[in-house]
Amino acid sequence: MALSWISRFFPGRRREQELHELRRTLEEKNRILSTLAHELRTPLTVMQTTTAVLLEELPGPLSPRQRHFLESMHENTCRMVQFAEAMLADIKVGREWMPLNAQYLNLRRIVQRVKTSMQPLLEERHQSLRIIFPSLLSRPRGNETWIYHVLTNLIHNAAKHAGEGGVVIISVTQHDHCVSLTVSDNGHGLLRAGREKIFEEFYQEEPQADASLQGSGLGLAIVRNVIERHGGKVYVTTASGLGTMVSFTLPLEPTPESAPEPDEKG
């Protein structure tokens, strides 16, 4: 009765209490999920490494039946490791990290780092990666680690759709008020249903036979969350049979630190 009377005459206070309770519940949920993902990731990573060593037959030769079982175990372990890492990333993005870690970004350096890390995967599928930079490129503010992960996610997704022997392109464009980065592929493109759901958590257009390209479906949801926290936007252009382009923008600040720098040779 007393609570009902307070709620009637102080509705604003009740809403504040409800919001506080909701935030506390969500934070507790994230804490539990984060702990669970951490605890799962460590033994799964050990299993992933162990099965990889066994498949290389370093301890000894395998029979065809043993190889079949190990390949299945390795594929599913890789999938679970990726899922645990994506869950941790999604929880981290949901927290207030931007004010603490924002800096002026050297996009040339970040893109080159991503290229180096993704090259083995692309070479395994006989895919090529091309990079296009403008002669002058400004430095937007942001979190270097998260922009690196955004590009890695987008290239991984492009490689998944480009197919054997496909081409993935990273193009960076300088605008007056922002810098845009686009990752495109010459794959099969997305159907209309996939276009509408591409940024939903856990959505995957189709299952992948290749475990190295099998994701959790969290990748593009995280991409959009990260870029929106940077004050940017994400756009998708796709045509069935022609490929897909995913672009994102990073806003520029009118300061000397973000002024365009010439192309770095060598």
From TrEMBL:
<dbReference type="InterPro" id="IPR003594">
    <property type="entry name" value="HATPase_dom"/>
</dbReference>
<dbReference type="InterPro" id="IPR003661">
    <property type="entry name" value="HisK_dim/P_dom"/>
</dbReference>
<dbReference type="InterPro" id="IPR036890">
    <property type="entry name" value="HATPase_C_sf"/>
</dbReference>
<dbReference type="InterPro" id="IPR004358">
    <property type="entry name" value="Sig_transdc_His_kin-like_C"/>
</dbReference>
<dbReference type="InterPro" id="IPR005467">
    <property type="entry name" value="His_kinase_dom"/>
</dbReference>
<keyword id="KW-0808">Transferase</keyword>
<dbReference type="GO" id="GO:0005524">
    <property type="term" value="F:ATP binding"/>
</dbReference>
<dbReference type="InterPro" id="IPR036097">
    <property type="entry name" value="HisK_dim/P_sf"/>
</dbReference>
<dbReference type="Pfam" id="PF02518">
    <property type="entry name" value="HATPase_c"/>
</dbReference>
<dbReference type="GO" id="GO:0000155">
    <property type="term" value="F:phosphorelay sensor kinase activity"/>
</dbReference>
<dbReference type="GO" id="GO:0000156">
    <property type="term" value="F:phosphorelay response regulator activity"/>
</dbReference>
<keyword id="KW-0067">ATP-binding</keyword>
<dbReference type="GO" id="GO:0030295">
    <property type="term" value="F:protein kinase activator activity"/>
</dbReference>
<keyword id="KW-0597">Phosphoprotein</keyword>
<keyword id="KW-0902">Two-component regulatory system</keyword>
<feature type="domain" description="Histidine kinase">
    <location>
        <begin position="35"/>
        <end position="254"/>
    </location>
</feature>
<dbReference type="GO" id="GO:0007234">
    <property type="term" value="P:osmosensory signaling via phosphorelay pathway"/>
</dbReference>
<protein>
    <recommendedName>
        <fullName>histidine kinase</fullName>
        <ecNumber>2.7.13.3</ecNumber>
    </recommendedName>
</protein>
<keyword id="KW-0547">Nucleotide-binding</keyword>
<dbReference type="Pfam" id="PF00512">
    <property type="entry name" value="HisKA"/>
</dbReference>
<dbReference type="InterPro" id="IPR050351">
    <property type="entry name" value="BphY/WalK/GraS-like"/>
</dbReference>
<keyword id="KW-0418">Kinase</keyword>
